Amino acid sequence: MRMISKAGLGLATLLTLCACGARAPLTPPEGASLPVAPYGSPNSEESAPNAEQLLELDALAAPERSVELRRRSEDREDDPFDLPPQD
């Protein structure tokens, strides 16, 4: 009996967690508004930013990869900071 109740509780928890991932546009709750635009942002004079603008990452938050990936094995250059452990 306890095994069935544990399985039921686990299933209920799993279903609850699955329901949290709804894919719908973000909107503020009824009666609330979006936060004010940060000082100096291009939208501060025009209007408050919408949900899509608030979710955009700037270049510093998500930089693009600027390194060429290695396609074959190559010898590493000497690293002056790769010191042996101290005794």
Judged by helices, strands and strand pairing, the structural class is mainly alpha
Morphology = flat
What percent of residues adopt helix (DSSP H or I)? 25-40%
Assembly category: single chain
Count of helical stretches: 2
Compute the number of strand runs: 0
Would you write up a description of this structure?
The chain is mainly α and 87 residues long. The protein has helices at residues 2-19, 51-55. 26% of the residues lie in helices and 0% in strands.
In short:
The chain has 87 residues and is an all-alpha fold. The chain has helices spanning 2-19, 51-55.
Keyword list:
87 residues, mainly alpha, 26% helix, flat
Layout of helices and strands:
Blueprint: H1 2-19, H2 51-55
